[in-house]
């Protein structure tokens, strides 16, 4: 699939994997993340490590990053890897704001099928599918959401949701 707009030199288009291939790369990424982090307590250090190693190991992870809860009903951009992400998102707006408001993960097969500005916020026209999950601390409080975009439709499924849910709980829970 040709990209909607030219990608910056430092980013490559996504490459899809089968469920079995996904499990292999998630296992490698998880082992690397857990061995690097050890008993690290700093949330920022955890986020930047997760972004870097997931993007390193998983070829359809185009934009990877965190949005953090600020105040009662807003997300502010956190650590990420990829093209410029929007800076603030109100709870209930876009995929990230919906996940923050409901506390439930969302998988989007084709972001272009959503109502732009309401159901989806297009930070990068190359993003075509997306998965967003809530990130909770050990005390159950919402740290924010974890957002991953791919340049290909249908990149994410229940394997991604389970692997990412388990990894985020293991690192932040
Ligand atoms: N697509 C997200 C916004 C974040 S940018 O993709 C990094 C959303 O719809 O909430």
Report on this structure:
- This protein has 173 residues and is an alpha+beta fold.
- It has one domain: GAF domain (Beta-Lactamase).
- It is 34% helix and 23% strand.
- The chain has a six-stranded antiparallel sheet with strand order 3-2-1-6-5-4, with helices on both faces.
- A hairpin with a 5-residue loop joins strand 5 (129-136) and strand 6.
- Helix 1 (19-37) runs antiparallel to helix 2 (43-57).
- It starts with 18 loop residues before the first helix and ends with a helix.
- 36% of the residues are buried.
- The model has no long low-confidence stretch (mean pLDDT 94).
- The structure holds methionine sulfoxide.
Please report which band the strand proportion falls in: under 5%, 5-15%, 15-25%, 25-35%, 35-45% or over 45%. 15-25%
Record the strand order, biggest sheet: 3-2-1-6-5-4
What number is the mean pLDDT?
Answer: 94
| CATH fold-level name | Beta-Lactamase
Query: Helix-strand pattern, N to C?
Result: HHEEEHEEEH
Total strand count, please?
Answer: 6
Helices and strands in order, then pairings?
Layout: H1 19-37, H2 43-57, E1 63-70, E2 74-81, E3 88-90, H3 94-102, E4 106-108, E5 129-136, E6 142-150, H4 158-172
Antiparallel strand pairs: 1-2, 1-6, 2-3, 4-5, 5-6
The structure holds methionine sulfoxide.
The site of methionine sulfoxide has 15 residues, from α3 and β6.
């Amino acid at each position: 699939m040709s990209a909607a707009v030219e990608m910056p030199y430092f980013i490559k288009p996504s490459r899809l994997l089968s469920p079995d291939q996904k499990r292999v790369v998630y296992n490698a990424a998880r082992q690397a993340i857990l061995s690097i982090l050890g008993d690290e307590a700093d949330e920022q250090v955890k986020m930047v490590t997760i972004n870097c190693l997931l993007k390193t190991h998983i070829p359809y992870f185009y934009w990877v990053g965190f949005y953090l809860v600020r105040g009662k009903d807003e997300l502010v951009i956190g650590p990420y890897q990829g093209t410029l992400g929007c800076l603030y998102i109100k709870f209930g707006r876009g995929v990230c704001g919906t996940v923050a408001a409901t506390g439930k993960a969302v998988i989007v097969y084709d972001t272009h099928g959503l109502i732009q500005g309401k159901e989806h916020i297009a930070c990068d026209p190359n993003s075509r599918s997306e998965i967003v999950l809530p990130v909770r601390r050990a005390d159950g409080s919402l740290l924010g959401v974890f957002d991953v975009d791919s340049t290909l439709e249908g990149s994410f499924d229940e394997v991604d949701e389970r692997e990412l849910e388990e990894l985020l709980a293991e690192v932040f829970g």
